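Predict the structure of DUF7691 domain-containing protein.
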Amino acid sequence: MGYILHLHSVSVAEIEERIRDGDKQYLDRCRQWARRWFDHGPGETAEDPLQGENRSIAEALEDIAAGRPKDAGSGAAYGYAFKALVNNCGGDPFDFGPFPRPAQYFSGLSAQLAELGVPKELTPEGFLFTGAPAFDLPYPSWGFPMIGHLPNADVARMGEHYAAAADQLGDPEDTRLVREFADFADFNASCDEYERQHGGKLRDLVAVCH
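Done. Here is the predicted structure for DUF7691 domain-containing protein.
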């Protein structure tokens, strides 16, 4: 058993714009996705408050969409509502894991990468768990989902540093994972090229660990 890390190539500015404009089609897709993803039976649906919290995922999504004040004791509900917004504004995520203790693992990996010259803000610890960008979401009572963000301008830099550092790591699993992060940066660059050609918004890295 462990936690899965999703890396999303998505424009946070586009999510903000769609919410600001009240994009009904987009918000309806998010609502439907939340129901499909979280409905597991009585007492375990997107309409039910999460265990130990005051709000359901469906209610949290409506709070975000309407710009309402957020319930401080419902951070997990808002985190999963944010995941619904992210999942419906980009392609399929890169999946990593499972990790029994993701914060501990990525702290150790970050220390190794920093020793190899990767700037602190570009190490996993520098962006994976920094919180949801542009949305002031309360911290989840369970500690999960953990959300992070790397702005568009830094994604390519991260990829370059990781590609250079990957083969210098001692553990083959660390090398593989760091290479896959570099592959994500290459994928993000390809998405950016498409967006430039079609007048879209450049994409950031959004991380969700749950």
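The CA atoms of residues 182 and 199 lie 25 Å apart.
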